[in-house]
Specification:
By secondary structure, the protein is of the alpha/beta class. The protein folds into two domains: 178 residues, NAD(P)-binding Rossmann-like Domain (Rossmann fold); 88 residues, UDP-galactose 4-epimerase, domain 1. α3 links the parallel β4 and β5. α3 packs parallel to α4, α5 packs parallel to α7 and α5 crosses α9.
């Protein structure tokens, strides 16, 4: 039987990139949007609702088998997470998946794993930590199947508005502009392709017996920015200029995730290696440039 998954923040950068890859995988996808008229390009059913307006949410959530909370960072994020959890409880939604990140771990994020204590170093990280805590509390107090998944650095097609490093470097390379690295380029990240992230979300939404759990959704591979630049040089066919600036204060130098728990409990298997994913992302950006 098809599952109905409702994604909050459906027009946001992360959700809108993931949505196309959720359809056709045995699930029906709906998007929660503030203005349905502005969401026509999503190509899915949408329902009107705002995470800031609690009384709208139970009706919007009704009939969903899973609600996936994806919202932008900001001072209202903890309240939005609380609103969504209360509304899911009122609407008797069987499963809720909260999209988190490694930010709650702070300096403990190398390597990131589910068993490390949370010690956020930023308001963004504190907001994600609060969302994870709400999931744990609703599972413990009400038996809700609330699951938290920590995304690593997502990338892929449909990321024209994203400001993280891969789409930023691709836009710069296509414009013939130098790529700026803060530091010597040995800092590392874990880049996960959007289709792998979508598959992980579906498994978090549909796997029984994982309520109250936290899972790392990532590639499990540590990649330096210098190696990333080499891959972009390869797909661009040009010798890109790289400018080095002083390291930024507070930037995490090394970061990747251990994904064994997601592999064992969810059957999660990332399939897209970074070089192939960069090429596919480059091709998408090139196709958009041809349409302008």
């Amino acid at each position: 039987m098809s599952k109905t998954i409702l994604i909050t923040g459906a027009t946001g950068n992360v959700a809108s990139a993931i949505l196309p890859h959720l359809t056709g995988k045995g699930v029906t996808v709906r998007g929660l949007v503030r203005d349905p008229a502005k969401a026509a390009k999503l190509g899915i059913e949408t329902v009107k609702g705002d995470l800031e307006v609690h009384h709208e949410l139970p009706k919007a959530f009704a009939g969903a088998d899973t609600v996936v909370i994806i919202h932008p960072p900001g001072p209202r994020a903890p309240a939005q997470s609380s609103n969504a959890l209360w509304a899911a409880k009122q609407a008797d939604v069987p499963r809720l998946v909260f999209s988190s990140s490694n930010a709650p771990l702070g300096d403990n994020a190398y390597p990131a794993s589910e068993d490390k204590p949370m010690a956020p170093l930023s308001p963004y990280g504190a907001g994600k930590a609060t969302g994870e805590a709400y999931c744990s509390a609703f599972h413990g107090a009400y038996g809700m199947d609330a699951v938290a998944v920590r995304f690593s650095n997502a990338y892929g097609p449909r990321s024209a508005r994203k400001t993280n490093v891969i789409p930023l470097f691709i836009r710069k390379a296509m414009a013939g502009e130098p790529l700026t690295i803060y530091g010597d380029g040995t800092q590392t990240r874990d880049f996960v392709f959007v289709t792998d992230l979508a598959n992980g979300l579906i498994r978090a939404a549909t796997t029984p017996g994982v309520g109250g759990e936290v899972f790392q959704l990532a590639s499990g591979v540590e990649t330096s920015l210098n190696d990333l630049v080499g891959m972009i040089r390869e797909v661009s066919g040009s010798d890109l200029e790289v400018k080095h600036e002083p390291p930024r204060a507070g930037e995490i130098q090394r970061n990747y995730s251990l994904i064994g728990k997601a592999e064992d409990r969810l059957g999660y298997r990332p399939e897209v290696v970074l070089a192939d994913g960069v090429q596919r992302t480059w091709q998408w950006f090139a196709s958009q440039a041809q349409l302008v």
